[in-house]
Amino acid sequence: MKVIVLCIVLVTPLVVAQQRSYEGYSVYKLTPKTEDDVEVVKRLQLVGEFWEDQFYIDYQLRIMVPAYNKIRFLDIVKESKMEVIEIITDLQQTIEEQLRPAARSLRSDETYLSMNWNQYHNLEDTYKWLDEVQRNNPSVVTTVVMGRSVEGREIKGLKINFRNKTNPVIGFLTGTLHTREWITPSTLTWIIKEFLTSNNRDIRALAENIEWHIFPIVNPDGYVYTFTTNRMWRKNRSRFDSKSCSHMNASDDMSNGVDLNRNFDFVWMGSGSSNDSCAITYAGPTAFSEPETRAISNYALRLNAKGQLLYYIDFHSYTQLILVPYSHLPESEVHTVENYDDMYKVALSAADKIRERNGTVYRAGISSVVMYPMTGTSFDWVKNNTKVSFSFLIELRDLGQYGFLLPAEQIIPNSLETMDGLIEMDKTVQLLGYYSSGPSNFTPSLGIILCAFVLIY
After folding, report:
1. C or N: which end of the chain has fewer Cβ atoms within 10 Å?
2. Catalytic residue among 49, 395, 417, 424
3. Contact 262/293 with Cβ under 8 angstroms?
């Protein structure tokens, strides 16, 4: 008798995400000048994908258009008097160029441990570097996991504390709520490097007078997705409402994800937010539906209870702005916000200082005036729900020539001028008397020194 054994092997299909190609896409710039132009722009959503969140008169817009829709795009635009400029002729080539290291030699102060600022780094390399920084600075640096993402990844950052005060002055910096904005983690890792290694007196004062909590990538799932699947992805990777997005000329994948900077419970689902999951500004099914936004808010509350939460700054790109709360208010009402005038002075001082190094022009003000109204944002929520004195959203380089695809050659110039702005910001805050206690290495300006000399004399 022979026994025949039949083995059935069940194979689970391996799902491999396919990298989206933008070959044949161009990026166009146009500015609606009338309400009729705005209506024309809305129709353009059927032929391309906008980089901007909102459409309104005199706001400069950029739209990605595939090769097969270019004739239709131009025919629709002809119905208006809007000027159209092609700013990127081959989007895929520009994406690939951004991944190449900058063609420049790095100085010794432009690298630290395994990190350099000659190129953009993925999540794995960034997190490995954060751990490396902690191991090399154990008395000053602590690795912190704020929480976990939708897909279970750590939201990892560093606490930098030189003085170990019981009631510290605290600064809280976050980046990459919107994951296609690659310049933000590069800038925040540069700040970490400078705080730990720079001999500049002003940087030392800024690093040592404040207990810093810095999280370069607070949307790790989306950030990984920009490297593996879709370079232009903005949201997180929640899957609440998977559906067809054909009504927005988008792939169905666009119905996945929540715009984390619309998901905070402050004027949630107000202006600048969408209840359509296909939209890039989808605010989620409820406020704080996302583990990433809950982690940020809970962490801010813990810091607020621990000491004097002086700064919360959320970094984005692009458009070169320093925004002050509150983003839903018109200019006529914003002066009712607590210490608005001081926040505005501090933002202006930083913008003026940034301009000195490279001539880079930043504007300061509330979002509804210098950009557009928005709601459910992290920096507005932190301002409203903690005792933080200064809450800002900083939009880094550039003004739209490359937008989210800022070349690697600009990482260091951008980081240097950003540090200039932070130093000046803190000097102005000290002049305004916001430090509650503790020593300061602040170096007063020459004008203050002369004034003190005359009084003593």
Report:
1. N
2. 395
3. no
Report the C-alpha gap between 266 and 64 in whole angstroms.
31
Residue closest to 386 by CA, chosen among 378, 397, 376: 378
Measured in degrees and rounded to the nearest 5, phi and psi for residue 358 equal: -125, 0
- All residues at 6 or more sequence positions from 453 whose CB lies less than 8 Å from its CB, including other chains: none
**What angle do the packed helices 183-197 and 201-209 form, to 10 degrees?**
100
Per the structure block, which two tokens stand in for 300? 């801010």
Listed residue (187, 160, 196, 221) closest to 314, CA to CA: 187
How many angstroms separate the CA atoms of 190 and 319, rounded?
20
For the segment 33-64, what is each residue's pLDDT rounded down to a tens digit? 999 999 999 999 999 999 998 888 999 999 99
Number of residues written out for the chain: 457
Question: Taking residues 86-102, what's their average pLDDT?
Answer: 97
pLDDT digits (tens, 9 = 90+) for 197-213: 999 999 999 999 999 99
What's the confidence (pLDDT) of residue 97? Answer: 97
């008097």: which residue's tokens?
81
Q: Beta strand 26-30 with 85-88: parallel, antiparallel or unpaired? A: antiparallel
Assess contact for 398 and 410: CB atoms under 8 A.
Answer: yes
Beta-sheet strands, E only, within 55-188: 61-65, 85-88, 111-112, 115-116, 141-148, 154-160, 169-175
Query: Which residue has tokens 């570097």?
Result: 129
Separation in Å, CA 225 to CA 183, 197, 445? 16, 32, 46
CB atoms inside a 10 Å sphere around CB 108: 7
The enclosing H or E element of 311 equals: strand 308-317
Instruction: Evaluate whether 311 touches 386 at the Cβ level (below 8 Å).
Output: no
186: nearest Cα among 408, 417, 424, 421: 408
Nearest CA to 442 among 166, 434, 291, 368? 434
Structure tokens at 263: 């998901």
Comparing CA positions, the residue from 117, 122, 96 lying closest to residue 222 is: 122
Nearby residues of 199 by Cβ (< 8 Å), 6 or more positions away = none
CB contact at 8 A, 206 and 426:
yes
Distance CA 210, CA 433 (A): 15
| pLDDT tens-digit series, residues 293-321 | 999 999 999 999 999 999 999 999 999 99
Q: Indicate if 395 belongs to the active site.
A: yes
Cα 220 to Cα 153: distance, rounded to the nearest angstrom: 7
In whole angstroms, give the CA distance from residue 195 to residue 239. Answer: 38
